[in-house]
Design a protein that fits this description.
This protein is α+β, with helices and mostly antiparallel strands and about 170 residues long. The chain has one domain. Helix content is about 40%, strand content about 20%. The chain has 4 helices and 3 strands; from the N terminus they run αααββαβ. A 3-stranded antiparallel sheet has the order 1-2-3, covered by helices on one side. Helix 2 packs antiparallel against helix 3.
Amino acid sequence: MFAQREPSLWLDQQGSALIEGAAVIPLLIALVFGVFEFSWLSYQQHLVAIGLHDAADYLARSPDPCNAVSRAWKAEQLHAKNLATRGSLSGGAARVRGWTAEMVTTKCSKIDNPVEPNGLSRFRSASVYVVTAATEFTYPSLGLLSLLHLRSPVISASYSERAIGAR
């Protein structure tokens, strides 16, 4: 008599939404935090690219670009590194947490500009100087990657610009 009144557990639907929610909500939370983490990574990469662009642009327009023996060139390189990482020549708040001026490398390369068989060269001068600012450092994760026991990706970027007025 008691068995006839009790419905079968397989046919009982009370609480099924709770069980389905308990199964789906952790996946949705992981998805939301994953999207947020990788959006933050893209934003940090963008800030690094802007900083390197600013540094190379600053160096390319410096008064004596690419003169390695000039004291002004060495000071300009320090200013460019601060501009890349801090957004200001003298320093300030960091653009990206964990990215320092020591992580930025700058160089000036001389590129020969040979005369083509048609008698013309690609550029107006015999050689061209190109200033490059580059960096490579580990992305400071928001915590999701370490929670999942994954290594943080390395942000690696560079920007080059032709030096104006280089000799």
